[in-house]
Write a structure and sequence with these properties.
Length: 66
Amino acid sequence: MAIRRMERFCNNPTCELCDVILRPQDTLKKGGVEVCPRCLEEVIVRPYQPSRSATKPAARRSPSLR
């Protein structure tokens, strides 16, 4: 069984950690829910999604013939 990576981030626009991916040990537990250590808002948890540019190999250009 493959281990699914999860990413956690704060979605509060006034927080310094907004849109920063947090490690599980960086989040706090409050009432059984993971919260941001700065603003104490609930953290968004979703499956890891690599960016498209990171998954595609760089396009190779053939040398131009002049």
